[in-house]
Amino acid sequence: MPRCAICKKANSVGNGGLQCKCKGKKMKLKEYRHDKGLTQQKLADRLGCSLQSIKYWETGRRQPSEQWMKKLRKRGIEV
Prior knowledge:
The structure is a single chain. 43% of the residues lie in helices and 13% in strands. The chain is α+β, with helices and mostly antiparallel strands. The strands form two sheets. Strands 1-2 form a two-stranded antiparallel sheet. The protein is globular, with a radius of gyration of 13 Å. 13% of the residues are buried.
């Protein structure tokens, strides 16, 4: 059985495809992106922020502003 690249647990078949067992938890930004199958650029486009911001937030070089933290929390994402 394939394993998730983020949580390293075995994936299960559900809803006609593979789903990560870590789905549904509060996720870190990179895990969220992985779960949705998005590139950093595609996530930036969906959130309406810059690619550089996504890179900084994922690596911990910078923290999002309070405004961005609220937007991310609404999606179940922790940074």
